[in-house]
């Protein structure tokens, strides 16, 4: 179908979840609370890393990048989802939909890249501890941070541009709670084979490539840990990697289920909605807890920050009393 032979839709209807007021309201409350918790938790990590010089190390630099990504990854989807849960009009304008799709995948792909970089950082820290500071220099950390963001931008740009130019004429109903590529291609006119193949070719190196690099890093890491003579040393080394492995398992499991398939035209997206909630809502909430709950340096930094705030508030109260 050619764009000149049809009138392109100006907005899409997001089907979202089953339209039951009680269910939607309950989902709204739960997702809102999780969203607020995600913003606060990830924001706290960014603030602590930037303000505490003890946390200005490569590992925490990459973690603050991940937290920044999680904030925007969930923000690209959740506010609109919350609005639609309480509204009978679940529409989104055409270009808003395209922007949401682009940023959702930009932040998602960049997250895979940063997870891979974090696994490399753990490999150097455990397998090459004496050379860690000479390898993971501030310059290299900055270059890696720039590379993961630039790589995400370049990877998804062409596919989004092709989707933008598809003729959406016959239907405007997207069977999802956000503008996912799969449901959008299913209602698009014209030939979508090139876009599907391109998407598959993007998914293979980005998802499987980053997963393979992460697995290789951890094969070397586990091998090195097993050669540590003391049991306490082994436990400490495993403890530093356990949080990263947990995030890797959740993230890759969900993405492999949703996107790593050659065709979307005959797919059902009902199960994808549930898995998408895990990716866009639950994982960004879990990351701050997974990475910091067993991290002594973060606990100390948080205690200092809270003590400083409490002391500042106490001084303010004393000063106010003296003035009176």
UniProtKB/TrEMBL annotation:
Q: Which organism is it from?
A: Salvator merianae (Argentine black and white tegu)
| Keyword flag Transmembrane helix | yes
Q: What is its main location?
A: membrane
For the keyword Protease, the answer is no
Can you say what this protein is called? Olfactory receptor
One GO cellular component from the entry? plasma membrane
Which is an annotated GO molecular function term of this record?
Answer: G protein-coupled receptor activity
Write out the similarity annotation: Belongs to the G-protein coupled receptor 1 family.
What keywords would UniProt list here?
Cell membrane, G-protein coupled receptor, Membrane, Olfaction, Receptor, Sensory transduction, Transducer, Transmembrane, Transmembrane helix
One of its Pfam families is: 7tm_4
Please list every transmembrane segment annotated in the UniProt record, as residue ranges: 25-48, 60-82, 102-120, 140-162, 200-226, 238-260
Q: Which residues form the G-protein coupled receptors family 1 profile domain?
A: 41-291
Topology in the lipid bilayer: Multi-pass membrane protein
Q: Where in the cell is it found?
A: Cell membrane
